[in-house]
Amino acid sequence: MLVQQIINGLSLGSVYALMAVGFALVFSILKFSNFSHGSVIMLSAYLGLWFSNRFDVGLFPTLLVCMIGGGTIAVIIEKIGFKPIRDKNGPLIYLFVSSIAISMFLQYLMTALLGGRFFMYRPLLKSSSWRFAGITIPIVNLAMLAASIVALVFLLYVLYRTTIGIAIRAAATDLSTPNLLGININMLISITFFISGALAGIAGLFLGMSLNVYPQLGGLVLKAFVATVVGGLGSLGGAVIAAFLLGLLETMITAYIGGAVTPMVSFTVMILFLLFKPEGVAGLLGLSSGSATQKL
Amino acid sequence: MNSYLASILIFTGINLISVLGMFLLMGLTGLLSFGQVGFMAIGAYVTAISYMRFGLPFGAGLLLGVGVSLLVGLVIGTVTLKLRNDYFALATYGFAEVIKNVLIYFSGYTGGSMGVFGIPAIVTLPMVIVIFLAALVLCRNFKVSKLGRNSLAIRNDELAAKVMGINTFKQKLLVFLFSAVFGSVAGSLLAFSTYYIEPNMFNWSKSVELIVIVFFGGINSLTGVVFAGMALTLLPEILHFGAEWRMVIYTAIIIVTMIYRPTGLFGRWELSLSQILGWIKGRRKSAVGRGGQGA
Amino acid sequence: MAYLDVNNICVSYGRNQALNNISMKAEKGQIVTVIGANGAGKSTLINAISGVLRYSGKISFDGKPLPYPAYKAACSGVIQIPEGRKIFPNISVAENLILGGYALRDKSQFESRLQAVYELFPVLKDRKEQAGGSLSGGEQQMLAISRGLMSNPSLLLLDEPSLGLAPLVIRDVFNLIKTVNAQGVTVILVEQNAKQALELADWAYVLENGVFVAEGSGEDLLADDVVRRAYLGVRDAT
Q: How many Å lie between the alpha carbon of A177 and the closest alpha carbon of chain B?
């Protein structure tokens, strides 16, 4: 039972981690909380649903389409909703408010187009659960965990082993100097949004598969927000760890205390964390963001 | 007056009162709070429960709500206003969520997710207008007073404000409590004009709506914020074709404004009483002039 | 036409005119210095040439119009070493250099550039795994210059490279500029540290309130009374 809950908690946490890393990535270079990230998750879930039904394909092609689709949507949002404000040197808070307005717009747009109803993915996986030594784990949770870990490792590779990735990390402390080295900063920002969107695409597909697809699905971005802040704003490593902890905590509370108090307990924990460890998990582990010692 | 119109105007007035609270907090002081809706919930529930269960009159319940909000605001503000602004935003969001969940969880008093039913519609349009005007005058005086300038200094550069000798924590706490009172009063009025209240009326998205209105009107213009509050509350009512599309259009208008007029519709422009009097005089003069020509 | 030909450029911040009809030239292989007091418009000039700021007027480089904005200018071989060094503190020294090589047209040159830079600054090789922010001020300036050299630039624009450095380190920096120049890189050097900058210069300009008030060879300006009084701290000869 406990093992089962831990695995379920980790897989929930892994999806939170995907969302949180994408969220933290944009935060790290543009320094604002991008709530439109939730819309990318929601739209990717719809995209995956449509694609898998229309072409009758399995998990992997759908995953690929969700990643490319999510990345593209994120870039389009950046170009329409943020770049005009950046070009006018608008304060960061405008970017933040714009991101909220965009997420509300897209949520209402999908409601207007398709109604508020829930759509269900047809089974993309062969079996629905995995039984082993008396424990039962939904296969979708395992796939979620595996895909998230692969995606996070790949992200690690991009950020540390490719020139573009290094540039993204450098831009986190200084957004103006890369220009002087021949790096097109607008392109770098677009790439960052694409990566962030692709991760949101994976999260959207799995969230859609396990929670069904509906216009408010993007509201789950709040979990990413919580994880990012608890992790220490801008620290990707802290965000990942905090996301896994959040997933575990929520699963445990739901399993052992009851679903009704889950949000209350996790928010109380979060507020306590903010009060007593405001530098976040990253500060706790010496991964503080923006400083000379920044690690993923 | 037809009752539909009256109810829309009451709703708009209530919304404007909470918008004014958000203007003080976010427009003037630069504090981003998702917690405004939490104080609305406190006001609404305290007033409603004390009326329905303990027979306390509406006015007393409203004041009791304000008292509870001040107390809660003092506790929440003291612990969260020392945090960085982005952490403060998150903590206030957590506060709003906790309030909502407390309302759902302690269902013995609050009716849980079903909410409180059968609240009499005591609130009238004149009552809302009077309270709104009082709140408006308070806000306006706040903005032009030393307190308002302290707030602006904090918004522009908190460190510099500190260096200039402003007790930034005290100032922020003061503004936070002001906005809590505004929110609480709006919540009480809301409860006694909609017949029932339920936790889902106090979602964090309600706070977001208030934030958007403040930005839409312009963080530097009280006039702009009031007009934006009216327009954006009435707009969904006016856009009556296809209920599902009106929110799409509403949000699209907001996005376009944010992008093309990031200082808000009104920028720094303020409408003053003397200006209005000037217009009226001007019009009278020209009317007299025309009369003279005719004769 | 000169190698770098700046022709009547103007830059303004809102209503304030920061540069007013500036024209200057640099021949290939020269060190051209611009001296001036704080706020004279030196950084503005550097930022206009390197495409960070919008300007009116024409700048041509190597017979062609100089590309705008900054990243295109950098890719065409015009590299600015910014004031205050602006190395990336959170990534390693080696990673700073990798980003420096971004504008390299022929990527196969990367390794040889890296070796050349390490030869010039052995200390950077020793510290290549360290975060850029952990270096001392002088080392950071070396890293900033090395990062600029990684892309094999034809024109190097240096903005106040001696700012905030100890006198001994300043000497090293100026020696380094000479070495780099000897390898065929044209240098535009903007400095408040007038004496050492003029000693290095093949040609120099004096900038005051957004206009050039004097120009000449480095030696001539060093001997010029007005310049001596205003920029070299020499009192009236008695």
A: 25
pLDDT tens-digit readout, B166-214: 999 999 999 999 999 999 999 999 999 988 899 988 887 788 888 888 8
With contacts defined as CB-CB under 8 Å, which chain A residues touch C98? 163, 166
What phi and psi values does residue C216 have, to the nearest 5 degrees?
165, 180
DSSP A213: B
Locate B186 and state its tokens: 């709006």
- Contact predicate C131/C94, CB 8 Å: no
What are the pLDDT digits (tens) for A254-272? 888 877 777 777 777 777 7
Mean pLDDT on C81-89: 93
Chain A residues within an 8 Å CB radius of B259: 80-81, 84-85, 98
Domain that holds residue A17: 9-221
- Residues A47, A63: contact at Cβ < 8 Å? no
Question: Of A260, A268, A278, which is closest to B105 when you measure between CB atoms?
Answer: A260
Instruction: Report the alpha-carbon angle B190-B70-B160, nearest 5.
Output: 115
Predicted local confidence at residue B187, as pLDDT = 95
Total structural domains in chain A? 1
Percent over 70 (pLDDT), chain A: 93
Classified by CATH at the fold level, domain C1-77+155-162+188-238 comes out as Rossmann fold (3.40.50)
**Greatest extent of chain A over all pairs of C-alpha atoms, in Å:** 61
CA distance A34 to chain B (A): 12
Question: Are A151 and C121 spatial neighbours (Cβ–Cβ below 8 Å)?
Answer: no
The sheet that has C186-191: what strands, in order across it?
C78-81, C155-159, C186-191, C31-36, C203-208, C211-216
3-class SS of residue C60? strand
Spatial neighbors of C90 by CB under 8 A, at least 6 apart, are A169, A170, A172, A173, A290, A291, A292, A294, C131, C132, C133
Domain membership of residue A206 (yes or no) is yes
Chain C's closest residue to A161, CA to CA, is C95
Which residues, given as ranges, of chain A have pLDDT below 50?
288-296
First to last CA, chain C: 44
Q: Is residue A280 part of a domain?
A: no
Looking at residue A76, its amino acid is I
**CB pair distance less than 8 Å for A181 and C50:** no
pLDDT above 70: residue C115: yes
Calpha distance A288→A293 (Å, rounded): 7
The residue extents of the domains of chain C are 1-77+155-162+188-238
- Of C31, C49, C79, C50, give the one whose Cα is nearest residue C197: C31
Residue with the two structure tokens 């964390």: A273
